[in-house]
């Protein structure tokens, strides 16, 4: 069930102790899944609002490459990349988006609430910022259980405006909790730019005042992100408390839905062009052996086809399911 | 059938019963921890967490920053990953700062994630009354929480129930909003020394004394159970016989026990420790009205005045139902054709109120 890239993590192909083929596999996998979702979407078979990660996959892929399977991740409604990168079942994800019984949450959560108990993906939330304290509590739990696990918490730039963000940073730093905070800054909250929302753009400085070490990745560089994540995770596992990474990238599709939206006037294609030029999927694809790349690409397509078939053929939930799971036994 | 309280063990005040429940569960289960502002200070939440930090250590009993929103989320996250947190608020009013996490996350987690994660969380909160508690220290907000599927809400009214319900809440795999009342902290009852649970969704009937059927059912919530029991004594002197129903838990609600008493008496007054409009009393009244077997039942509702709670005692005493106003309402319901009952003020003050001197 779990996502297995079939490429060992330890065999370094670069000086940064990172397996480029494995990272490429992760990026391409998320990209192709989401492109497939966008292709299927007009058919209206997907009964769920989709918030695509296309253009900002690198943070999830790089961080999860560094994490252990037993570590937890927590994310948002724009959470396909994180769910897949951590090893959430693709069949479960697509069936969930189709509203089918074979879905990750039996069709009750949809695209915005992806969850995987097997892969330790704490469920994603559609209320901005609400997953940050939950992830912080999971880190408290790991620390109390002294099990050596850590939590990686992903959220967008909008989340940093919520009170719960500041409250969680303070508590995590106070208790030296094993948590990596990753802000995926894509510069827009729905259609509102940072300039309409932030008094200053010195996010890392703000976080640093809690005594939390911070790193800024301002160019969507997956290798830099991987390096930052490795250092942060090592430090957190050593018991030094939380770390924070601000990762800047660009959402290439609309806030919600399968399309591009540069015709709507709130942002411009010129702005996107800079980020398209840095596309990490294309970059890494040129760094690996073409034969290996072809093999990886073919495997991914096979996996996607199988998952689409699974979602299409998975039965609708039984009517009794409406009342199941309101309370736990 | 409603439950009866066991008359064994020691006589213990409500506050010590809470503390004993916490200590016993923490001893039995290392995943239980208690946190919230002031739980580890020298006053220990009016005694209810006193000394727990010495017994169980600062890792399992600790104060928090004043961050109710994030601390509630942290409790949920810990609960989802193997712990059983008890999060303490010294006033229920402060839970409004935790509303998003409780309603959007705790209540939804098990359902929207298809059963992948549980939230075994207890949120303790206390309602204040008198000595100037006023607008923001006095609210009974249980209806807001009970409205939301996924949450459980309990309001034990005596020392026996508070211990058994708290142990039940800690062992429950769902988020439980646990309502205490500050004035109940001194009230005493027989409390067994050993660990025991009081199940949710089972109410109690304090029946009419003697063999004759009662004339009216009083359904009390939280400390209003005590006010109703005093009302029962007052009305006995007039020949009006009452049954008092204590639902104990608001959600799940033991409507069967309420219906059983209502069927017998034909008259129900619901006395809530909250506002009447859109509240728990409305829910109970609606269920009676919707029940074909209870078409004959007359219903009245009592609760907070539809105002904000004032601090001045001259206005505040008009804000709450009390045994006089409840008795007068019950008497009028039973004897619509007789002159109204007028209860002497000295009969109204309850021992548990007379006992207390401020500040909180």
Compact overview of the structure:
With 329 residues, chain A is an alpha/beta fold. Helix content of chain A is 40%, strand content 11%.
Structure, described:
The complex is a heterodimer of chains A (329) and B (360). Chain A is built from 11 helices and 8 strands. Chain A has 329 residues and is of the alpha/beta class. In chain A, the strands form 2 sheets. Chain A has a 6-stranded parallel β-sheet, sandwiched between helices. A two-stranded antiparallel ribbon of chain A has the order 5-6. In chain A, helix 2 packs parallel to helix 3. In chain B, the strands form 3 sheets. A 7-stranded mixed β-sheet of chain B has the order 3-2-4-5-7-6-12, with helices on both faces. Chain B is globular and about 65 Å long. Chain B has 12 helices and 14 strands. Helix content of chain B is 34%, strand content 19%. The interface between A and B is large, with 44 and 43 residues.
Kindly list the characteristics that best describe this protein.
heterodimer; A: alpha/beta; 8 strands; B: 360 residues; alpha/beta; 7-stranded mixed beta sheet; 19% strand
The largest beta-sheet of chain A arranges its strands as 2-1-3-4-8-7
Q: Helix count of chain A, per DSSP?
A: 11
Class computed from helices, strands and strand pairing of chain B:
alpha/beta
End-to-end separation of chain A: 26 Å
Mean pLDDT across residues of chain A: 94
Rg of chain B (C-alpha, Å) = 20 Å
SS content category of chain A: alpha/beta
Q: Quick one: which chains have the greatest interface? A: A-B, 44 and 43 residues
Helix content of chain A: 40-55%
Quaternary state of the chains: heterodimer
Instruction: Report the C-alpha radius of gyration of chain A, rounded.
Output: 19 Å
